[in-house]
Amino acid sequence: MQPVGVAAPLRVDIAEKTFRSAEGVPVTALHDLSFEVRQGEFASLLGPSGCGKTTTLRILLGLDTEFSGSFQLPQGGSNRIGAVFQEPTLLPWRTVEQNVRLALPKAMRNADLDRLFDSLGLAGMRSLFPSELSLGLARRAALARAFATEPAVLFLDEPFVSLDEPTAERLRHLLLSVWSARPTTALMVTHNLREALMLSDRIVVLSPRPAHVTGYFDVRLPRHNRSPQVMSDLLRSFHQKFPGAV
Ligand SMILES: Nc1ncnc2c1ncn2[C@@H]1O[C@H](COP(=O)(O)OP(=O)(O)OP(=O)(O)O)[C@@H](O)[C@H]1O
Prior knowledge:
Keywords: ATP-binding, Nucleotide-binding, Transport. This is ATP-binding cassette domain-containing protein. By secondary structure, the protein is of the alpha/beta class. The protein has a domain at 1-77 and 187-246: P-loop containing nucleotide triphosphate hydrolases (Rossmann fold, 3-Layer(aba) Sandwich), CATH 3.40.50.300. It is 30% helix and 24% strand. It is built from 7 helices and 9 strands. The site of adenosine-5'-triphosphate (ATP) has 14 residues, from strand 2 and helix 1.
């Protein structure tokens, strides 16, 4: 048990998660999945398609309670959880600004969000409705909504998937700048190694299903030092440490 007031890490200790197919056949998605993300760290959960990444996030978000094991979420200034999914899940009949404010606890509803909208390039889009947004802009609005709540932990499920690469790259930089201004413990699911190396302090490498942790790859370099040359060195050392991982 962590003493009150001490920053607690994200601790995951899932013994097993098994689904049943429509025919009743058991499908074990997670088995002995244990890892830790230090408080304030940005971590990625990297693993092959279908290994159990989204299942893990759903458990941590409390959306799936049928598993054996336990986890502990970080305790920060707030106990709020932020989430960004592949689908931006904005309310269609509310503006961008209303979507963000509705996610806030009542006491924060009138918070000054100018800097947050500015830093995500949304200053001129606050009164638009989701149907008026491209997928890239909708993802930005979803990021704004997640950060506005000042969560103690932020979960992201492939937030840049199905965007064209220049848009995805711009969003990764926006995410980094908004996260650097409001650092919070973050766990991002991805199967994009380059993206994980660019954004993370720690990569949690998963096995094929049923997922367990193959190992950690820590990137102890300031993000502004991750030049193309450094990135290709990181890619090489990752592949040496985890041959065939992704
Ligand atoms: N509701 C469900 N019922 C039955 N099986 C499921 C269910 N949800 C997930 N699975 C199975 O559990 C396994 C893990 O799925 P999950 O979506 O967590 O993988 P993933 O690593 O996120 O995959 P991807 O990278 O392709 O998104 C898969 O074999 C999937 O078919």
